Amino acid sequence: MLRTLKRNRYGLLSLVVSIGLVFVKFYAWSLTHSQAVLTDALESIINVFTSGFALYSLYLSGLPKDRNHPYGHGKIEYLSVGFEGALILGAGVYIFYSAVQALLAPHAVQRPDWGIWLLASTAVINLLVGFVLVREGRQLHSPALVGDGQHLYLDAVSTLVSCAALVLVALTGNVLFDTGAALILGLFIVVNGFRMVRRSVSGLMDESDVDTVKQVIGELQQHRQPPWIDVHNLRIVRYGADLHIDCHITMPYYFSLDESHTEVTRIEELVRSRFEVEVEMFVHADPCTFAACPSCTMPECPVRHHAFTRLIPWTLENVVKNERHQLEV
């Protein structure tokens, strides 16, 4: 509950800041009539919509599991990132088109000094708020907060480019610096919008998080016990901040149900202790076969058919496969 409240609070901060900066940037545009400043202001409108949707997604992701959503509501955060990326992508295309039109029919930039100071102040605010959102989003394992913070980083970069363009216009009087900056910003926004959409699709399609998988494998390898003869078919799915993990563990076939349950519980508690987020884990126990004897370290095994020869290390290459890799020895 505390984690949900913190995420919502930071989401609200992003929304309030975005609304305030929109007014500042459009005021700067009204003073300068700069194409680069207009580009920056239009992107900030997208910030308001995306921050609002991100806040709503944070609220939904914090709801408990129910009959219709047995894995919770965390996936909505990836949808939020995709929505944000799609809006940014569309805005980038429009901005690029508008910049081309301005390049064909350039107009004078007025009062660039005012525009420079106003935009510089918004860039500093965006950098600070973006840093806070990314830092807290990673600590809270919130894709929506991280995505929102990264968007503010991009907005700050766009603003700094606009400031640089105004400085060049003020020094040289050449308005082509203004429209050229708008073209660069339009292309930059399109590329980053596409990347956000790509990250959203990866999350919604349950693309494997290699770093998290390696963490789980490393924990199992470090605390490996003799009854854990083999681990395979390890799968990890992230639902917003929460993790769903399942795998198969090969154990001695003569273990009682109570003994197998004890080992499964040890494994689940071991993995859960590795993460600060909620972890839902299911372990399926498989009975061993005699082919596993050469790599089994069970002491005084009453049914051993082959002597132990070598221990097969658990790695990313063999643990994620749906195979008992000891059978390949």
CATH architecture of the largest domain: Up-down Bundle
| CATH topology description of the largest domain | Alpha-lytic protease prodomain-like
Helix-strand sequence: HHHHHHHEEHEH
Helix content: 55-70%
The SS-based structural class is: mainly alpha
User: What's the alpha carbon Rg, rounded to whole Å?
Assistant: 27 Å
How would a textbook summarize the main sheet?
A: 3 strands, mixed
Mean pLDDT equals 80
Q: Beta fraction of the residues?
A: 5-15%
Summed up, the domain count is: 2
Taking pLDDT < 50 over at least 5 consecutive residues as the criterion, the unreliable ranges are none
Q: What is the name of the CATH superfamily of the largest domain?
A: Cation efflux protein transmembrane domain
Q: How are the strands of the largest sheet arranged?
A: 1-2-3
Number of H- or I-type helical stretches: 9
Give the number of DSSP strands.
Answer: 3
- Highest CATH level, the class of the largest domain: Mainly Alpha
Spatial shape: elongated
In whole angstroms, the N-to-C terminal distance is: 48 Å
Protein name: Cation diffusion facilitator family transporter
Pfam families: Cation_efflux, ZT_dimer
InterPro entries: Cation_efflux, Cation_efflux_CTD, Cation_efflux_CTD_sf, Cation_efflux_TM, Cation_efflux_TMD_sf, CDF_Transporter
Keywords: Membrane, Transmembrane, Transmembrane helix, Transport
